[in-house]
Amino acid sequence: MAEWTHIRKPSVVYLVDDLVRLGYVRREADPTDGRAVLVRPTDHGRDAHRVIETVTEQIAANWKRDAADGDAGHLIATLERPVRAIEAAKRGRR
């Protein structure tokens, strides 16, 4: 995860610890690698993710409505660029 997020490993561990404590994710042993630990979302984490997606879509809709079409499109494309890069990196690791 540290490599994938470009965050130092101790910081990732700290963040995952908080997410576990808050009930958003759980750690599981990786069945293919005894040294690795998988971080999986809980039902609470999946619910939170759905809320985040809904709110993000609402914000984007508001920007499109309130800004000139060209400006809103450029802003949204700029903000989506890192998300697309992360998703592409995830697909490449599967």
The string of secondary-structure elements, in order, is HHEEHH
Poorly predicted parts: none
From the alpha-carbon coordinates, what is the Rg to the nearest angstrom? Answer: 17 Å
Task: Choose one word for the global shape.
Answer: elongated
> Any idea how many domains?
2
Mean pLDDT: 85
Q: What is the SS-derived class?
A: mainly alpha
Number of E-type strands: 2
Largest sheet: 2 strands, antiparallel
Number of helices: 4
Distance between the termini: 14 Å
Strand order across the biggest sheet? 1-2
Helical amount:
over 70%
Instruction: Work out the strand percent.
Output: 5-15%
Q: Would you kindly provide a written description of the structure presented here, covering whatever features stand out?
A:
With 94 residues, the protein is mainly alpha-helical. 70% of the residues lie in helices and 11% in strands. The protein has helices spanning 2-5, 9-21, 43-66, 69-93; strands at residues 25-29, 37-41. The protein has a two-stranded antiparallel ribbon with strand order 1-2.
